[in-house]
Task: structure prediction
Amino acid sequence: NKKPLGNPQNTIEVLQKYDFVFQKKFGQNFLIDTHVLDKIVDGAEITEEDVVLEIGPGIGTLTQHLAERAKKVIAVEIDKKLIPILEDTLNDYNNVTILNDDILKVDINKLVEEENAGQPIKVVANLPYYITTPIIMGLFEDKIPIKSITVMVQKEVAERMKSGPGSKDYGALSLAVQYYATPYIVANVPPNCFMPRPKIGSSVIRLTKYQNPPIYVVNEKLLFAIIRASFNQRRKTLINGLNNAAVVPLSKEELLLSIKSLGRGESIRGEALTLEEFASLSNDIDERIK
Ligand code: SAM
Result:
């Protein structure tokens, strides 16, 4: 009686049975393509040892696939109208817990403590695009124990997350993500894989978190302030970007000394620096402030 939802027919049947009305404010576009669902679960590298946090299960389409592979799935859904539907579509799985909550208000550290004794979990999500980046950054910055995050994002956002120096997509988001994780594009997903269809193309990206930071940074706050200031004014030189943003209490001359410590000069732009260089710059500036 395990009826797979990952095809248009079964999805329509469930939606009609419950007279479900799509809520724009919750960014509801449900997956209706089994190939994409398989790719997500494969891409997330889910095994029977994993406890998975799924954010935004919808009618439980992806949840079913996750539950087939994982030890346990905790699914957090904001829309209370979906809860009876989820209880129905996931009825045959005894390893799924459904929580009716706004993920932005959930104490995820506490949840991981309760559900997996504080051991790292895997996060999988197909979420509204406008909250995806804050959620990802929140998971990293709040030091939630996670192995990886596999998420559906706008295609352009996936490009930005995995870009390096020299690419037009390289920016503060690339550096923020790559400071914490290794990005890998799992799949590109066209609009016809969803119901209703979104207007834009999507990609599934997996961010595998470093269990130990790959670079040494004395002051993370300062690093990210420097990165933001460097990309605020794209066409400006690094020195002017830092000087104008006034995030660093140093004179222009002292800033230049810091930039020179990288073996770079006055004309260098922020978008040319690697993450390692931003880290060295930040450590050097930190020394000079003290
Ligand atoms: N995972 C399902 C799928 O792939 O078919 C549904 C994806 S749909 C794009 C996004 C889901 O996230 C919706 O079910 C929506 O109600 C839910 N959602 C939106 N904002 C949320 C929030 N802040 N916390 C938890 N769930 C949320």
About this structure: The longest strand covers residues 146-154. The radius of gyration is 22 Å. Residues 190 and 201 are 5 Å apart (CA to CA). The chain has a mean pLDDT of 95.
